[in-house]
Amino acid sequence: MKIGLFGGSFNPIHDGHLLVAEQCLQRLGLDAVWFLVSPGNPLKNHDELAPLRDRVEDARALLDHPRIKVTGFEAAHGFRYTYDTLKFLTQTLPDRNFVWIMGADNMVSFHKWDRWREIANMLPMAVYVRPGSSRKAPGSLAATAFARYRLDEDDAPLLATCEPPAWVYLHGIMSGLSSSVIRAQRKDAKIAK
């Protein structure tokens, strides 16, 4: 079974996240995508972070798709970093072919993640184009460090069965939606009331 792992705070979840999941299902030939709603991102300010339960429920409501699963299991296991989550999943479910899915904006800052090189060596990665990051991501520190392991976009269906490190940069339909912009709009709407 080929499973895409799409992690994040999803604060809030929006149609752009669904777009990425659907594109990865199709273009990578995945059997499923699991949304891993994190308790929090160590690199972000948590002042505006909605409760995990609310974010998981909102994600389940939006992502009503037979091949998409939403979970907040990281909090139950006390996982704070992506590395710990991925290590747990790859060791617990060794019969699955996992692919880490991230937006190009995350690839730009991937080198700041805890044990980022080990993550890249643990499972293949799909990086999906995002507005404002389409030129920065391919030249990022992480992309440069793993440049020789980049697959051609035409070979994306092979990614899930590739020995890591392996990654592909997917171009395609983009959404201009942004969780931070949505939060700012909601904040402005509350102030205007």
Explain this structure to me?
The chain has a seven-stranded parallel sheet with strand order 3-2-1-4-5-7-6. β1 (2-8), α1 (15-27) and β2 (32-37) form a beta-alpha-beta unit. It is built from eight helices and seven strands, in the order βαβαβααβααβαββα. By secondary structure, it is of the alpha/beta class.
Number of helices: 8
Order of helices and strands: EHEHEHHEHHEHEEH
The CATH class label is Alpha Beta
Q: Tell me the structural class.
A: alpha/beta
Please indicate the count of domains.
1
Rough outline:
globular
Summarize the helices and strands and which ones pair or pack.
Blueprint (H helix, E strand, L loop, with lengths): L1 E7 L6 H13 L4 E6 L14 H11 L5 E4 L1 H5 L4 H11 L4 E7 H5 L7 H7 L2 E4 L12 H5 L4 E2 L15 E4 L8 H14 L1
Parallel strand pairs: 1-2, 1-4, 2-3, 4-5, 5-7, 6-7
Pfam families: CTP_transf_like
Catalytic activity: nicotinate beta-D-ribonucleotide + ATP + H(+) = deamido-NAD(+) + diphosphate
Enzyme class: transferase
